[in-house]
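Hi L., both proteins are below.
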Amino acid sequence: MAQQLIMMQRMKTITTKIKIEKMNKSVFFALAVLISTLSFAQKKELKAADKAIKNSNYAEANAALNQAESMISAMDDKQKAQYNLLRAKALFANGTGNDNDVDGAIEHLNKSNMGDSDVIEFQSVIENSLLTKANDLYQGKNYDSAARKFSQLYQAVPSDTTYLYYAAVSAVTGQDYDKALDYYLELDKLGYKGQQKEYFATNKETGEEEVMDKQTRDLYLKSGEYIKAGERLTESKSGEITKNIALIYVQLDKKDEAIAAIKKARENEPDNVGLILTEADLYYKLGDIDSYKALVEEAVALNPNDVDLLYNLGVISSQIGDNEAAKSYYSKVIKLDPTYVNAQTNMAAMILEGEQALIEEMNSLGSSAADNKRYDELKEERMQLYNDAIPYLENVLKEEPNNLQASKTLMNIYSAIGDTDKYKAMKTRVQELSGN
């Protein structure tokens, strides 16, 4: 009896195994059918989307891709890459998609197999389309939209960081400082320099150096019309980027960040005059005149013949009340460049500023002998001021004959010193310039 029971148990076990094996085969068969069906459905929807895109029916393509999307987890890598490329094309809609659609298209493009020739070709289509639109928007002074397009260009072609630079320039020009700051910070993080090789040669007729593409330059050299050919890298934009980061921080009222940004840059290039002036300009905007003056002097020491530096130092010296220093700097500018109109104008203005104090003292005097003597002395000083200012104003008119303000001032001075001929000539000029 025990043996029979054991036998029955064995038979039951065997029977159970057979049932399980039969059931597994059914499941495997069902799964195989399901996978085959999914694969067919995937191919069908992807094929439908591809056909719709070729017919420029992008809404239909997106609808087909929405169906395929539910099966994406079952796709192999090749099908996923195909799906992403088709989705990118459908969203981009040959350049008619809105900004959000374009963002989506770029996202799917970047998920595709970037080594595939079809993907590379479509990437070029997006690049050309966006570049044309970005340039048109910038030329049309629609800077915010241009910045968006250049940013999309960078996302579509991340190897070309120049597009990110253009996005930053567009944003800052459009005064969208938050976006511009993001772009500039990313450029700084990437170590972007923006240097390009440029080719140049000297025009024999004009003696001027001209920059051109290599092929054109080489042709001109062969013709003999140009000489002294060469090539060089353009100036690095890293200083400009640092400067704009700092100035945007100032604009956003983030003083500490601004100072930190420029000091970090100067650690790497302590003798970079451009960066020194950027820091000086920063302190000027923050109202720290002493720091501004010290930095400009530092820049002048590195480049003592830079007339713009000297002129700026003259301006700031005047603003802080150091008139003697201001005159000294303006004199240096004029010595280096007699045609520097602003320095000539400011010198004349500073000289004539002393007139008001003389007039006030003259008007306060009485009629005593001592007062009359003092009056004559002050009158003489006043005449001397006029004579000191005249050469500078005359130099201004040599460079700018139509400068009405300088003409009026000279007319009044000639009248005051009794130079009748010059007064009449200047009066005629003022009338002509005024249209009277």
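That was the first. Here is the second:
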Amino acid sequence: GVVITASHNPPQDNGFKAYFDDGAQVIEPHASGIIAEVNAVTGAAAPTVEAGEIITVGDEIDRAYMERLETLVIDRAAINEGRALKIVYTPIHGTGAILVKPILKRFGFQYSVVAAQDTLDGRFPTVKSPNPENAEALKLAVEQAQTEGADVVIATDPDCDRMGVAVRSKEGEMRLLTGNQTGALLAWYRATAFFVQGILNAENAKRAVMIKTFVTTDLQRAVAEKAGVRCIDTLTGFKYIGAKLLKYERALPADIVCRYREMSERETRAARLADSTFFVFGSEESYGYSGADFVRDKDGNAATIMFCEMAAAAKKRGLTIPELLDSIYAEYGYFEEKSESLVFEGADGAEKIRRLLQSYEDSPPGEINGIKVAEVENFEKDEIRDVEGDIIPKEKMLILTLSDATRIAVRGSGTEPKIKFYFFGQMRPAQGHATADDLKNFKETVGNNLAALWRSLRQDVDRRLEQ
């Protein structure tokens, strides 16, 4: 199948996403096969006899999907007791308007919608770009939240696979969360709730997994390790998470595989915990989240339900989301991420990006800002395997691990004339929980360290381009 969409991009970037028969976006060799078929087309259009038929999917599909979305809720009591939570939602002119509103209503949440953005309009007239990663796209929703005294702003992009949020702090300010922060909150909540509900325990945790991309926060790994759950890194793109979910399905006994997709969520969960792998949570730093394998892509509808349950549980405990996040930092350590991009337009720019990536591959830095580079992983040349032993597909990306556990990833953008740098810093208490003073120090130290690393790396880029 295909999804015709501009996704989270400006309207002129409209195109389509291709999916295979497992419901996930295509990976190799199918991706190259599809491109080859597209490139082989010479006529303007297919003959009428080959054009096929358009069939409009009925409401029964929406109802079935809504029922499955309800199974994402782990602790219904948390929602029932946290209904004082006030939500402002915006679909940013997209498809989230179809199902997010009725699912919020079904659970009894107090919510309002940004009326100016509650229209299906592919021009996205109220924003420069309908990307919930950008503060500008949430501006109207945040203003409405301030007027209404809402706790949470939720925004989904036009094809409703990404979700961005803003949350009210104890001081009353609305703060935007990064994709890494949102993902860490959801990973922590879902892992914790599964144990509290008895779905996971010390015996079966080894059959559970969290999946994230290499350029997503290591806080999720810390949460998984403490819970005794595997944490797997994949390349950027939810198609790689989807490929893992297909692998886990195929690992089930044959009599279950043949009827797996007709089974209830409770039945598939029991089967996976008994004979394969149970998927706890998956995310990528670019605002994509998944909590179950009945949708094998990032899903803004699912993300909204998961976030609202977590926020309601925090409200029940008398905590704002920033306070909850700090409590997680206190337990697992402080993790902060920073991303930077350098834009090089045109043919000359493309050559600069190529030269830079090749330069880092040929002669990676031995130290950055005086900190020794302890390990270099070359994803194009090295054979890199994940914790399950599966080979990571080749990609032009380097990950540098410094002696203080800071990680830096360098890769070219797949869609824009950019070279991207990702920084991952962390500080953990020597023992026990971090105090409020510890956290204050950690945040300042890590933030300053990442800024200094970027300054040093930026100068290194200039030197390499001059060579």
